[in-house]
Sequence to fold (255 residues):
Amino acid sequence: MSLFNLKNKSILITGSSRGIGKSIAEHCALHGAKVIISSRKIDKCIETADEINAKVGSELAYPIECNISNENQLKRLIDESKEKIGAINVLICNAATNPFMGSMLDMPIEKFDKVMNNNIRSNQILCNYALPDMIEKKDGCVIIISSIAAIKGSPILGAYNISKAADVMIVKNIATEFGHQNIRANTIAPGLIKTDFAKALWENPEILKSVLSSTPMQRIGIPDEIAGVAVMLASEAGNYINGQTIVVDGGTTIS
Fold:
């Protein structure tokens, strides 16, 4: 049996109606997992779930609406996910926000708070809701989609960088506290990926030129290249990887 087999796995992915989250959900389903498609817009969730189910030829994707900024909705997301696909084996926190680009001096505190709430607090809350079942089964996996923003300073993405660095520490804490319960937690740190979320970066000629000039592979990434790492971490192939940050950036951070 393949090390990357995900049959009988129940996987919840936030922000999975498009972009990186959608790609992760699709490839997890293609490897046999039942997946929850979650985002703020239920119509997009349904559309994505239907698309994935058609591709895999069976009903493995289930849509649930959730705004990650609302704690009640986060609790409902966990509860409804368990009703649809059983206790969560793998939690993948992908949803995030970045409502501001520019100097930290100019960033309204309300937008700073929104970044911290959506990119850190919501992830911690979801982990806290998902972990008890993982502890009971002595098996579980948490993956947070961080960013190379967690390891590089930026003059225009300061709050986002702070939040992504905090996500790295969330998984280190989980790995340290619950590793003896056979629970693994890791982050994936993408470089610039061609998604709608990052469009403001890769559509900006100056920013794109700067990124490509420091990226040995001379291109930006695509969502499937992040999904492959997520499948690996969620499967038996990743059983001894814990508390780590896997950088997927074409070499941007090495040059």
